[in-house]
User: Fold von Willebrand factor type A domain-containing protein from Desulforamulus putei DSM 12395.
Amino acid sequence: MALPTQAESWKNKSLSDFWLTGRGLDNNKNGNGQPYALFSHKLLASEDTDAQAMALTAILGAVSRVVDIVHGRNKFTVNFSSKETRTDFVAKQIALSAEPLFNPPRGYLMPDIVDVLTGMALHEAAHAQYSSPEYYTEMPGNPFMAVIRNVVEDTYVEHLTTLYYPGYAGYFWKYRRYEFDLDPDKWAHKPRKNLMENELNLRATDFLLVMRSTRDYVSRVARVNHVADMLKKMIYIDNPVRLEKLNTRTVSRRIYDELFGNLVQHDIAYSLPSSLLDYNNRGKHQGEPGSAGANNKTNIPSDLQNLIQNMRQEQLQVANMSELMEAGLDPDYPPPPPPMVVFRRPLTDEGAAERYEQARSVVKPFVIRLRNRLSWANTRQVINRYHLPSGELDEDSLYQARFSNKIFRRTEIIETRTRKLDIGLLVDTSASMVYPAGEGISRVQLARNLAALFVEALEPVDSVQTWVFGFNLKGAVNMYELYSPGLTNKARIGMTGAEGTTPEGTALKYAALRLMSEGRPFVQKVLIVIADGKPNPGPETRMVKEQVRRLKALGCKTINILVGDRPQEYGYEYVIPWTDYYTVTTEFGRLLKKLVEEE
Assistant:
């Protein structure tokens, strides 16, 4: 009996089964693994959004595990494409097409679909790791050269990845099988009336299928087979170090000349269409509304995307907080496991926008006051000089002048240079914030009002960027991203609540790390903490003082706004006790003005 080929073994096994079940391929082969039903549209059509999100999050977890193993040092984030998400190699964010989930091929089980999605993700990550920057910036306008460039680069990065990680070649094979072979008409050559155009598209199509199909496609055009063999000899080598030195741009030019050189001049090719132009956009998995790529088979709803993101963050952003348990514990007993630190963007409810508008209306007079204290240093100063011998006509002087050359004016614009600031605002959202703060409002309402004050006042200031985080400890250290420079919706600030305890030291640490990583390089950092009481006793209290000292050594300014009966004993560089909006606005404006003016 003949042994099964490698392709047949990949076809019959679900490579992702281990990541989904934890039992491995052998158990499922014996019938002991977890049974899977066919993945159909019923899951995504269900009205239970939480169930959808949980299933999709589990799939992303399986995909991300493989990507992390192969490309972990690059810290890629994997998600499904939506209107807000697309593959972004600069931000290290990979977007997967949701089409295999919405429209699964006949006979595909859930692990098979995860295999395909894993191949997609690995393909994108391979481009980010092994493609040179010029690949993204100088894609030629000649559509046929663009197809050749894509095919050469795709083949190159996939083979290089499999040389370093041979066990994952099957993911690429399954992705190619799904992409190029399940629908025979998808990439089939479409005859054209124009003989030149027909021959160009035939060669381009056949070259694509010879290199990317998993069915050992053989072209009817001898030149295509010859060129494909030539490319395979250059790329399918066993030395990854040598392969990394290959210049794929030069290879693409050589392949193009061999494939089309006897047929058409370069200037003619620029004017002819290619049936494979869609292939040039493969990997982005996202189009603008109304474009060919923007359809309900590739994108998932934005609200579902947000829910998945939150669930993924709970899995991914598990921080090592062992230093919290180092002091004050009995050495005879091992310390308890550290709590998780979870960054999330809370989903806004119907009342969030209204609560934010209420907060904004309360502080509106003070917003203008605080903004005025800063705007002088960040706005153009326009000065008009009058009674000049030349310049623009001064109409007010013109009608009075009998005869004079001093009827002109000149406008001078003075650009004031100011110091840039990245400001992070930490809002205590622990249970003690439900207590009254005076003036008939609770402390959490006061904190919301102050957050609205800072965001509304600082947002128009060109040199300042602002982040707002809420924090509490309830099972995990929850860090709520309420506002950031990348978010245009301020309604999340209306989601501030009050529950759990006060992990102020941990929140200070991880908010600072977030500010350092997302903020602008060489820009002054400022952290403002709005809290009402003492941090959690023991390690948390000590950690506050330790983190304040570390931030001061790094040049990061710290400001503590005291709400309630909070003592002034945590070492913050500046402290503003809460009395009223006028006082806080005056003191805060004075401090920020000082920071803006600092050299």
Notes: The chain has four domains: 1-130+288-316, 136-285, 352-374+418-597, 380-414. Residues 429 and 497 are 6 Å apart (CA to CA). Confidence is low (pLDDT under 50) at residues 22-41, 280-297, 317-337.
